[in-house]
Design brief:
Fumarylacetoacetase_C_sf; twelve-stranded mixed β-sheet; alpha+beta; Fumarylacetoacetate hydrolase, domain 2
């Protein structure tokens, strides 16, 4: 990927957007704002993005010019300034099974025990018994409870349907603090997975006060074979090196960009293989079964996040097209390029590799905080 493509990855109305991110500099990572094609470091005012997202005046910070936007490179390039994931100390959370299609696909994985070849038959059976009902009920409502009772009687109940139409959302920790990758970086799939896919999602940003302050794009990589064998393998299916991508930038909420833009977002995804394979998909946030504010509320319920958190909101995308063999559906190949785009959020692009071969995550919280302290003492 060329760094010149980053300008094309901005929202269509980027001139009116407040875009925040993180950049690796020779001195260490810094929070940045993007204005008029220039990248400005706000490290002096906000040493972390957690600090930046806590400020009501974030949009008005001036900062120090670093470089033109198109001089930013992806991590691993020889660029002086490299774009990182646009968060740092925030917990990385995810909501699962928030769309009817993804709920059905999770049940398929469970019933197939991770066997892709068994998926087609099970999918047809589930659509016949579950499809219309699960798309029409409000989770936790009386009609949802009646549907649950009917499905239990029919022998079709699943733990995935519980979180799809029951009162409690599935919210889990997707990845450790500081482990997310950004635009242009290689995204990791476990080397021992044979059935997997990207998950294009909107990701909301919540500050330390529990206020949702903005949103970005994310790829919540999913290993269908692992989670399908057992839901208790969710950690292995979801939390691996380089398996959470975010970016390119966080767009802060303002008068012209609000939670309603999250609710109405349309996402397009393209997967391009080195073998010439191309798959396109579309996801609409209008079809989400739980409102984003409700997912944030449940994440905050009886828990505090003193550095804030980000929350993947789930995906409608469920690739069922066969890639190589009839009946096996889609799975990634090394070298696939995944681009997730939405007009008011921009485009997040990553190339697929294995988690073993992806760049190792080597900057933890201790190293990160020591670096901040060292730079602050140098200028005091």
């Amino acid at each position: 990927m060329s760094s010149s493509r980053l300008s094309a990855a901005l929202p269509v109305d980027h001139a009116d957007a407040v875009l925040c991110g993180r950049v690796r500099t020779p001195d260490g990572p810094v929070p940045v704002l993007v204005r008029d094609g220039m990248v400005h470091s706000v490290f002096a005012q906000c040493p972390t993005t957690a600090d930046l997202f806590d400020r009501d005046d974030a949009a008005s910070l001036t900062g120090t010019e670093l470089c033109p936007l198109d001089e930013l490179g992806q991590v691993g390039s020889d660029a002086t300034f490299q774009l990182l994931a646009p968060i740092d100390l925030q917990c990385i959370k995810a909501a699962g099974v928030t769309f009817a299609v993804s709920a059905i696909e999770r049940v398929i994985e469970e019933r197939a025990r991770g066997d892709a070849q068994a998926a087609a038959t099970i999918r047809a059976e589930l659509e016949e018994h579950v499809g219309n009902g699960i798309r029409s009920v409000v989770p936790g409502s009386a009609p949802a409870q009646r549907l649950k009772a009917a499905l239990i009687d029919a022998g079709m109940w699943s733990q995935y349907l519980e979180v799809a139409i029951g009162p409690d959302a599935e919210v889990f920790t997707k990845a450790p603090v500081l482990s997310a990758i950004g635009w242009g970086a290689e995204i990791g799939i476990r080397s021992d997975s044979t059935w997997n896919n990207p998950e294009p999602e909107i990701v909301v940003v919540v500050n330390s006060a529990g206020r949702t302050v903005g949103a970005t794009l994310g790829n919540d990589v999913n290993l269908r074979d692992f989670e399908g064998r057992s839901a208790l393998l969710l950690g292995k299916a979801k939390d691996n090196n380089a398996s959470a991508a975010l970016g390119p930038f966080v767009r802060l909420f303002d008068a012209g960009f609000t939670m309603d833009d999250v609710r109405s977002a349309e996402l397009d995804m393209t997967i391009t293989g080195t073998d010439g394979y191309v798959l396109s998909g579309h996801s609409s946030m209008r079809e989400i079964s739980r409102d984003p504010d409700e997912l944030v509320r449940q994440t905050l319920s009886e828990h505090q996040y003193p550095d804030g958190f980000v929350l993947f909101l789930g995906t409608l995308f469920a690739p069922v097209q066969d890639r190589d063999e009839a009946g096996r559906g889609f799975t990634h190949k090394i070298g696939d390029t995944v681009s997730i785009a939405s007009p008011r959020f921009g485009t997040l692009t990553n190339r697929v590799t294995t988690s073993k071969d992806a760049a190792p995550w080597d900057v933890g919280i201790r190293t990160f905080m020591r670096g901040i302290a060292k730079r602050q003492s140098a200028v005091s």
